[in-house]
Amino acid sequence: MIHDNAIDFYEACPGGKLAGLDVGTKTIGLATCDAAWSFAGPAETIRRTKFQKDLAQLTAFVEAQGISGLVLGLPLNMDGTDSPRTQSTRAFARNIAPLGLPVLLWDERWSTQAVERAMIDADVSRAKRADKVDAMAAAHILQGAIDALVNIAHRD
């Protein structure tokens, strides 16, 4: 159920709302998109504790939002190779298998930096940026993925 490319994920996902996750060591940023895969928006940030508690919070979010698939940001090195964080994200994807949802690993290089830059340009205070950056990064990741998924859908 873990997919490294959008075509396989598209074929495995029944449609409906997706959630984007920006998985960090201290937090998990969450975002959602509409069922038509038109636009993504930030939702919330989970403060990480023990994995079972994180999974319980994620499960509650998925159920409350009616999520049918997950897009996880994959923190590749700039040359496209895996890093220790990439391996950690892949392990997280395997560990959330009990959710029973298809998972797309999506290249997230530059997502947090792009969001930070946009928030600075919008004159968002440092405190508010720190509170919102993970969910905004998740939305950035999810928007990139749904843009690709919609292109695949239009090819069919």
Defining traits:
alpha/beta; six-stranded mixed sheet; 6 strands; Nucleotidyltransferase, domain 5; 156 residues
Provide structural commentary.
The protein contains five helices and six strands; from the N terminus they run βαβββαβαβαα. With 156 residues, it is an alpha/beta fold. It has a single domain, classed as Nucleotidyltransferase, domain 5, CATH 3.30.420.140. It is globular, with a radius of gyration of 15 Å. The mean pLDDT is 89.
Short description:
With 156 residues, the chain is α/β, with parallel strands linked by helices. Helix content is 48%, strand content 24%.
Please give the alpha-carbon distance between the first and last residues.
22 Å
Note poorly predicted spans. none
Question: What is the residue-mean pLDDT, rounded to a whole number?
Answer: 89
CATH fold name = Nucleotidyltransferase, domain 5
Instruction: Please give the count of helices.
Output: 5
Q: By CATH's scheme, which homologous superfamily applies?
A: YqgF/RNase H-like domain
CATH class: Alpha Beta
Number of domains: 1
Helix percent reads 40-55%
Overall form: globular
Q: What order do the strands of the largest sheet run in, or round the barrel if closed? A: 1-6-5-2-3-4
Strand content: 15-25%
The helix-strand sequence is: EHEEEHEHEHH
Q: Which structural class is indicated by helix and strand composition?
A: alpha/beta
CATH architecture: 2-Layer Sandwich
Radius of gyration: 15 Å
